[in-house]
Automatic annotation (TrEMBL):
One Pfam family matching this protein: Thioredoxin_7
Keywords from the named record: Signal
Family per record: Belongs to the AGR family.
Full protein name: AGR3 protein
InterPro entries, A to Z: AGR/TXD, Thioredoxin-like_sf
Length: 166
């Protein structure tokens, strides 16, 4: 009898822990954890590689936001980005979206250095669009909170380039 109840208990523990693991896994994949405050309605990809794959597959440009948690400029940009309805809507519908808190090994994503915040576009042919730049000549791919109209124009430009080039 002792053996039987031990076996039953271990099976129960296995069932519970695998359910727990699945629940944890599920929660990890929920977009709001990946959004990190950039927009909970947006479906975010987890890695640069996944972003490239999805861009190619869906024929949408990939938008990569490099940022750091303890960077005040990133925080300010994130707030403006998350509160801008037009940006949120375009990001949801027309782009593959990735926000990264670490550098990728792809040097093409840091053409003028590894600073944050930095927003770059990659088209579905997997070309990094170094030609889509922000307003600042010393940091070509940075945006400030007041630059949201400019970022919107650049998002539209990224979408237009696909139509004209592919």
């Amino acid at each position: 009898i002792m053996l039987h109840s031990t076996l039953a208990l271990s099976l129960l523990l296995i069932a519970v822990s695998s359910n727990l693991a699945m629940a944890i896994k599920k929660e990890k994949r929920a977009p709001q954890t990946l959004s990190r405050g950039w927009g909970d309605e947006i479906t975010w990809v987890q890695t640069y590689e996944e972003g490239l794959y999805q861009a190619k597959k869906s024929n949408k440009p990939l938008m990569v936001i490099h940022h750091l948690e303890d960077c005040q400029y990133c925080q300010a940009l994130k707030k403006a980005f998350a509160e801008n309805e037009e940006i949120q809507e375009m990001a949801q519908n027309n782009f593959v979206m990735l926000n990264l808190m670490h550098e990728t090994t792809d040097k093409n994503l840091s053409p003028d250095g590894q600073y944050v915040p930095r927003i770059m576009f990659i088209d579905p042919s997997l070309t990094v669009r170094a030609d889509i730049t922000g307003r600042y000549s010393n940091r070509l791919y940075t945006y400030e909170p007041q630059d949201m109209p400019f970022l919107i124009e650049n998002m539209k430009k990224a979408l237009r380039l696909i139509q004209t080039e592919l």
